[in-house]
Design brief:
76 residues, 2 helices
């Protein structure tokens, strides 16, 4: 939602699909729109890591007592 809302701030990020602002001229997009884009990508990365930790921790909590992780099926 934040990544999409960056287009409403100022005149958009103007970075393209790489989210890399053009730095070759003095008129690089140094506004809040680029900040929104970079911040939203950071939040997406943190959410992804926390979701992976949650998945692995749930597998650890719901496994049968005495079974090791090597012998447990992936989606038991």
């Amino acid at each position: 939602m934040i990544l999409l809302s960056r287009s409403l701030v100022e005149s958009g990020a103007g970075t393209g699909w790489t989210v890399y602002p053009p730095l070759s001229s003095n008129v690089a997009h140094a506004g809040r729109s680029v900040d929104f884009a970079i911040f939203s990508l950071h939040l997406a990365g943190v959410r992804s890591i926390l979701g992976a930790v949650n998945f692995i921790r749930t597998l650890g909590n719901l496994r049968v007592f005495g079974i090791i992780l090597d012998r447990m099926p992936l989606f038991a």
